[in-house]
Design a protein that fits this description.
mainly alpha, Arc Repressor Mutant, subunit A, two-stranded antiparallel ribbon
Length: 92
């Protein structure tokens, strides 16, 4: 589906921590802009705000999420890739 970019996205995704992956999945499923408060409320298991902020900062440095005003989101390509990964992992 993504051609050569799929391999690059796979490499980047495999480097993520468990929490970073959870945030990526959450954003792909909640396609509206994500707020810190909503993420902290929804993510299971419960994680401190400090850990979530650190994970978001790392994802932003890797250009996997974008800040828009007071919320964050994924690009449409990343959103589709992460949703596809989630489906593939749940079919295993």
């Amino acid at each position: 589906m993504f051609g050569d970019i799929r391999a690059i996205l796979d490499q980047q995704f495999h480097r993520l921590s468990h929490l970073e992956k959870l945030i990526m999945y959450w954003l792909a499923l909640n396609q509206d802009l994500g707020s810190m408060r909503k993420l902290q409320r929804d993510i299971v298991p419960r994680v401190s705000q400090r850990l979530i902020l650190e994970a978001i900062e790392l994802l932003q440095r890797r250009s996997l999420i974008e800040w828009q005003v007071s919320s964050f989101c994924q690009t449409p390509v990343l959103m589709e890739y992460v949703a596809e990964r989630l489906i593939e992992e749940n079919l295993k």
